[in-house]
Amino acid sequence: MKTTKRKILKELANAVAMMDEARSADLAREALKAGIDPYEVLVDGLCKGMKLVGQRYEQGEYFVPELLLCTDAMYAGIDVLRPHLNCESVGTSGKAVIGVVRDDIHDIGKNLVTIMLEAFGFEVRDLGRDVPLRDFITEAIKLDAHMICMSVLMSTAMRGMEEIIRMLKAEGVRKNFKVLVGGGPVSQAFATRIGADGYATNAVAAARKATQLRRTSR
Predict the structure, then answer these.
(1) Cα 6 from chain centroid (whole Å)
(2) C-alpha distances in angstroms, 171 versus 125, 137, 167, 168?
(3) What is the DSSP letter of 179?
(4) What pTM was estimated for this model as a whole?
(5) DSSP-based three-state secondary structure for 143
(6) Which residues does residue 100 pair with via DSSP β-bridges, in sequence order?
(7) Cα(213)–Cα(76) distance, rounded to whole angstroms?
(8) Which DSSP letter does residue 145 get?
(9) What is the pLDDT at residue 29?
(10) Contact (Cβ atoms closer than 8 angstroms) between residue 9 and residue 36
(11) What percent of the chain has pLDDT over 70?
């Protein structure tokens, strides 16, 4: 079973990286039929495929058109899995703004989280990378968002996360938004210290945490 599981998930990741929508959907069905947990299929199959895509993009092998086609392949797999995700997003959809904090341009992780949030039923406004701190708050208010999601890969950009939360408090709107943080150098200890509402280590965990936080938001 372990060999079969590894083979299916590896082939699924490759299907996403090769922009093959039909193959992605077929392999997602095969994974479910083999009894593989749907969330494992997401993390070790579809999301791993998008990580491969991110590496190819950063190395100049893929460009925006390829990214879009790979994303379509990932969604083809997600559509197969959606009915088997324990309905976690049913009745909990909300609005979120997401971006990579100022002074950081690494956005592959943020892109994966955006995809997963949308798969879990959120309306997402993606602010992009190297986002000015003020924009997170301005866009969250404009969207009437329930959540502000921030990502970094460079430790020097982490200060921006803390500053955004300070700004929210100073302007008397902190209670209006749940704040979710993540990225390579971020930890639960850091998230707790700056007063964030949630922290996640990967895209699926971020979407699940966002769903939990949405249930306790306004």
Answers:
(1) 23
(2) 22, 10, 6, 5
(3) E
(4) 0.71
(5) helix
(6) 151
(7) 27
(8) -
(9) 97
(10) yes
(11) 95
Measured CA distances, 14 to 7, 30, 200 (Å): 11, 15, 25
The tokens of 166 are what? 């300070």
d(CA 204, CA 42): 7
Burial of residue 134 (number of CB atoms within 10 Å: 0-12, 13-18, 19+): exposed
Contact call for residues 118 and 95 (beta carbons, < 8 A):
no
In the block, residue with structure tokens 């939360």: 165
Least Cα distance to 151 among 179, 173, 123, 170 occurs for: 179
% residues pLDDT > 90 (the chain): 62
Per-residue pLDDT at 41 exceeds 50: yes
Alpha-carbon distance of 54 to 109, in angstroms, equals 9
Phi and psi at residue 148, to the nearest 5° = -115, 120
C-alpha span between 30 and 12 (Å, rounded):
10
| Residue given tokens 């392999």 in the structure block | 27
Separation of alpha carbons 135 and 17, rounded Å = 32
* Residue 212: count of CB within 10 angstroms of its CB: 14
- Other Cβ atoms within 10 Å of 14 Cβ, number: 17
> Which of 18, 29, 32, 126 shows the shortest CA–CA distance to 73?
18
Tokens of 146: 């329930």
Which run of H or of E encompasses 21?
A: helix 21-33
